[in-house]
Every structure is written in C-alpha cells, then in structure tokens.
Amino acid sequence: MRVVETVADLRRLLAGAPRPVGFVPTMGYLHQGHMSLVARARSESATVVLSIFVNPTQFGPNEDLDRYPRDVPRDLRMSDEGGVDVVFAPGASEVYPRQHRTFVEVKGLQDRWEGASRPEHFRGVATVVTLLFRMLQPDRAYFGEKDYQQLQIVRRLTEDLRLDVEIVGCPTIREPDGLACSSRNVYLRPDERQRAPALHRALESAQKALHAGVRRGTMLRDVMTSVIEQTSGATLDYAAVVDPETLEPVESVDHEARALIAVHLGNLHLIDNAPLIPPHK
Ligand code: AMP
Q1: pTM of the prediction?
Q2: Domain covering 183-273, topology
Q3: Which of 88, 105, 148, 154 could hold 51 in an S-S bridge, CB 3.0 to 4.6 Å?
C-alpha cells in the first residue's frame, strides 16, 4: 500500500495504475461502514484508492472541525488490511492552496433536511467531491447510504457535470443493536449510546406500519416521531418520508420511498434512513 499526500504524487502513481480505479472518499477514523465500501471497491476494481481528508469547507463555524476524531496510523493499518492500494491523505492547503472561490451547489437537493440546519454543508461536500474526482479520475466511487442525502447529491452533481464516474451506493452497516456505525459515535456517553438505537427503531416502526397498510407519508412520519418522543434525552430534528431521488416529501407510499430521521442526543446530531417499499397488493 502506498500513502501519498500531494496531488502530484497521486497523479504520478495513478498514471500507470491498472483500471478500473475504485475510489472510497472518507474523513478517516475508519470503522466497519467505511470498510464495507473498501470491500465492495476491492471486489470490482484493479486499483483501490481511499482518501482521508477532513474537509474544512463542509463544517460550519460552530461545528466540530477541530474536534473531529482522527487516528491516521490506525486508518492506515485498517486500509492495508482491507486491501487498499493507495491512501491519499492531503492537508487542507493541498486541496485548497489559496482562498477558494469556486463552489459546486446542487440546488433543491442541498437546502432541506441536513442542509436546513447546516446551510453550507452540502456545498462543501459537493465541492470537495468534485475536486477529488478531478484529482483522481476514478472509474467508480463508493458512498454509503448512511448519508443518504449526500449520496443523492453526489449522484446528481456527477450527472449534471458529466464527471464520468459511476457512483455506487452501499448499504448502511450497523452495530448489533441497530445503531448505524459512525466516526462520531465515540462521542456518545454510555447513557446516550444506550438510547441511540431509537433512530433505527423509529425507522423499523415506519416499515412495520407500511406493511400493516399505512401509506400516508405524514402518518408514517408520525410513527417515527412518537418513537423519538418516548426516548428520554432525545429531541427530534426531523423525520420525513421522501421520494428517493428528489428527497421531497411524498403524500402516499405507492412506490419505493425513503424514511429519513435526524435526532439530537446530548451534543450530538445523529442521522439515519431506510427504504420504504410498499408490499404488493
Ligand atoms: P465519512 O468518513 O463519515 O465522511 O464517511 C465516508 C463514507 O463512508 C461516506 O460515503 C459515508 O456514507 C460512508 N459511511 C459512513 N458510515 C457508514 C455506515 N455505517 N455504513 C455504510 N457506509 C457508511
């Protein structure tokens, strides 16, 4: 496995690398969710590149950029064991060498749900993904469904800008009690950690209600809301039943939809989502 920190070294290394090149972008502090993306990339690529970059432009002024968990030596060990060929770990000045003035925005998709409370977040995500794609020129890139809105935004920008990268969405990896793996889970206090599976329970309740015949989006949303209301210490940010591509609320789940949920637990903001597939009549 090679580790490179500059775009010049990355380009040199990838110039002769066997294709297809599969790319897994991360912010590091790797866990089983990230490793599932690596495994998928490994299974269908000749060269696997993983990036570790805590992207400053996707953090708001009062967010946790400086506190974001980091452990590069451990990330490198895990990447090596997972079969990664190249780790790209640039510093902020390598990605943004001078004051950056050019940003990618995905109108409509970027402003609601996670974008409502974090106004510049997806602009930062879309910009860094575009930059990384330009630097690496991968054939495929792997993203987790865990960050469902991000996945849809990346799909859309890749299509709109004709970036010629195939976007592969990968299922959410969970702890045994249902909590979606996340780098930020280390910040959960023991009592919060115990309550955190409420998000997954809320999503499962919506799926059960759908199978019991409830189709109205608002009713399925209320099912999720009530699970969170019964969880002490948790406050709902949003729960929604949306179209899987446009992320707009759906009135009735007659085709596949997506349930989204976001909750504040202590100082942490947890998100999760799940498919809502109506049973055949
Ligand atoms: P991050 O390091 O949090 O930016 O995540 C890097 C990539 O890993 C993103 O595409 C995430 O959606 C994906 N990812 C994070 N957590 C999970 C998970 N629990 N299951 C699957 N993919 C995940």
Answers
A1: 0.98
A2: Pantoate--beta-alanine Ligase; Chain: A,domain 2 (3.30.1300)
A3: 88
- In the DSSP assignment, the letter for residue 249 is B
Distance CA 111, CA 168 (A): 23
Q: Which residues, 6 or more positions from 196, have their beta carbon under 8 angstroms from its beta carbon? A: 179, 185, 188, 265, 270
Domain residue extents for the chain = 2-170, 183-273
Q: What's residue 62's pLDDT?
A: 87
Tell me, what's the pLDDT at 281? Answer: 64
Q: Specify the pairing of strand 268-276 against strand 257-265.
A: antiparallel
**φ/ψ bin of 19: left (φ > 0), alpha (ψ from -120 to 50), beta (otherwise):** beta
The question of whether 264 is a catalytic residue gets the answer no
Which residues in the chain come in under a pLDDT of 70? 281
Residue nearest to atom 22 of ligand 1 (CA): 144
Homologous superfamily (CATH) of 2-170 is HUPs (3.40.50.620)
